[in-house]
Design goal:
Blueprint (H helix, E strand, L loop, with lengths): L4 H8 L7 H12 L11 E6 L1 H4 L8 E15 L5 H10 L7 H15 L5 E3 L4 E3 L10 E15 L7 E8 L8 E3 L1 H10 L3 H18 L11 H9 L3 H4 L4 H14 L24 H21 L8
Parallel strand pairs: 2-5
Antiparallel strand pairs: 1-2, 3-4, 4-5, 5-6, 6-7
Helix pairs in contact: 1-7, 7-8, 10-11
């Protein structure tokens, strides 16, 4: 027996937003205080990730917030001709205040505004607990980053063409991590109206499989990977109004698909590969296999499962 329509209705709805925008606004106000060491620089504070993209589910426990330095940037000039590269260097110079100073100033200032027992920075993001008392009922992952520009044209006259993103390093790492959250958001909004709902269905199905389905296996697919995976599903499938049919046809499509042709939602990089912003096909294959198993065995393997979704 396949998964009943009532289950898909529950899975399709976004989780409650416990104040993600309010949390981002409060972080921005803290960083912009007059005594802040970073008030000398130009920066923006924005939400990103599932809350920004409205693909969050009931299990989302934190909001991703970026503090992006915009008065300086890292860049990729590999698409430019040699004369364009020379023109870029003629028109731009280095800055005294860059990413290393900015991210350290952000961390130093956050430490003065929150108790040490509710903040930490060991990886990519500064983690701020909702137990701080200064935020809504939601944890914050704050990423200090710098603007990133991928140049495709640098004419002698007129404005250059570039795709803007963000770049950062983990606290103790040396490798640049580059992504394009604005393009991700814009492209996601341009897709069929059912795209984001389908993403939520697949995220919730993954969580249900891991937490409540009667199996020894778990699905390791991360949420960003699922968003990108579903963005490659044809519109003819996404536009299906019947959620059960859409879920099943999406699984069929993914089972037969050539993953080497899949892009990320931003369209700036293939989804699968070896870089630090790409996914591996093994986890994607496992997602499709396990969710297909859940579709086929729903009646048998939910007998002892607690239906919480």
């Amino acid at each position: 027996m396949p998964i009943p329509p009532s289950q898909f209705k529950n899975w399709s709805s976004p989780g409650a937003d416990k104040g993600s925008k309010t949390a981002a606004d409060k972080i921005q106000k803290i960083l912009e205080l007059d005594r802040s060491p970073i008030d000398q620089s130009d920066f923006i504070v924005r939400r990103q990730g599932s809350y920004k993209n409205t693909t969050h589910t009931r299990d989302n426990s934190d909001v991703d917030v970026i503090a992006k330095l915009t008065s300086a940037w890292w860049r990729d000039l590999s698409e430019l001709e040699s004369d364009e590269v020379d023109r870029y260097h003629d028109n731009n110079s280095s800055t005294d205040y860059g990413y290393t100073d900015f991210r350290q100033d952000v961390w130093n200032w956050i430490q003065t505004k929150f108790d040490r027992n509710v903040i930490s920075w060991n990886g990519k993001a500064i983690e701020i607990s909702k137990e701080s008392g200064r935020l809504p009922d939601i944890d914050v992952d704050l990423v200090p980053c710098i603007e990133y520009r991928y140049y495709t044209n640098y004419p002698e006259y007129g404005e250059p063409d570039c795709d803007e993103g963000m770049a950062f390093k983990s606290r103790y790492g040396s490798e640049k991590i580059i992504n394009y959250p604005a393009l991700h958001y814009e492209n996601g909004c341009d897709m069929h109206d059912n795209y984001k709902e389908t993403v939520r269905i697949f995220k919730n199905a993954r969580d249900y499989y891991n937490n409540h389905f009667d199996t020894l296996w778990t699905i390791g697919a991360h949420s960003y990977g699922i968003e990108c995976l579903i963005s490659n599903v044809p519109k003819r499938i996404l536009k299906r109004s019947n959620r059960a049919d859409r879920f099943y046809e999406t699984l069929q499509f993914l089972d037969d698909a050539d993953f080497s042709t899949f892009d990320q939602v931003s369209k700036m990089e293939p989804l699968f590969g070896d870089s630090n912003t790409q996914w591996n096909t093994d986890e994607a294959d496992d997602l499709v296999t396990r969710l297909s198993e859940m579709w086929d065995d729903w009646n048998d393997k939910t007998a002892n499962a607690q239906l919480l979704y």
